[in-house]
Amino acid sequence: MNKDGKMRTYRFGIIGCGSIAHHHAHSIRETGRGVITAVCDPSLDKARSFAEQYGGARSVTDFRALVKSPDVDIVAIGSPSGSHGEMVVACAEAGKHILCEKPIAITKQGLDDLVQAVEHHGVKMSSVFQKRLAPDFIRIKEAVARGVFGQVFLADAYIKFYRSQEYYDSAGWRGTWEHDGGGALMNQGIHGVDLLLYLMGDVKS
């Protein structure tokens, strides 16, 4: 909220103009409190096409240029997974708040580096784990908290997830060690792992 009592409008930059970026853009607009001021993609034509659909934001090909922009408050990162860590660190160093697609990093070192950067520069960061907002999982969470199931000692996740070959062919980075970080557990199964943490609490040891 501004000093005059009005709700603040936040200026967003979006890195990566692929399919997931459209979900981010729609959500930003639906809040009524966000405006997209800059978008970034290695393909300038793709960035410009995306920008035209969402108000004609400035288009760039270098994410560092977007991150350093004075007209960006929050950066939404939807680039290939292997680039997330470097981009989060750059955002933190520039004082930008961050919404990053999962996984936020594909190596432990990358994860340690970005956590250190976010904490050191005092910015806010969140990752996208939308399944926590599903009504069924919210009800289960509430039931666990109320003790409906008694004291829960153990939980596991059985994930029957399928991606067609067309999915992997749709983007060259998918399914690669360098850019995707691993197999189904890294990209799809991570939602099951997150739900276990959401329902059971953080790992203690």
- Written as H for each helix and E for each strand, in order along the chain, the element string is EHEHEHEHEHEHHHHH
Low-confidence runs of at least 5 consecutive residues: none
Figure out the total of helices.
10
CATH topology of the largest domain, what is it called?
Answer: Rossmann fold
Oligomeric state of this protein: single chain
Number of strands: 6
CATH superfamily of the largest domain: NAD(P)-binding Rossmann-like Domain
**Amount of beta strand:** 5-15%
Question: How many angstroms does the end-to-end distance come to?
Answer: 40 Å
Largest sheet: 6 strands, parallel
Number of structural units classed as domains? 2
Strands of the widest sheet, in order across it, are 3-2-1-4-5-6
The geometry reads as globular
Text of the CATH class of the largest domain: Alpha Beta
Rounded to an integer in angstroms, the radius of gyration calculated over CA atoms is 19 Å
Mean pLDDT over all positions: 92
User: Which CATH architecture of the largest domain is right?
Assistant: 3-Layer(aba) Sandwich
Structural category = alpha/beta
Helix content: 40-55%
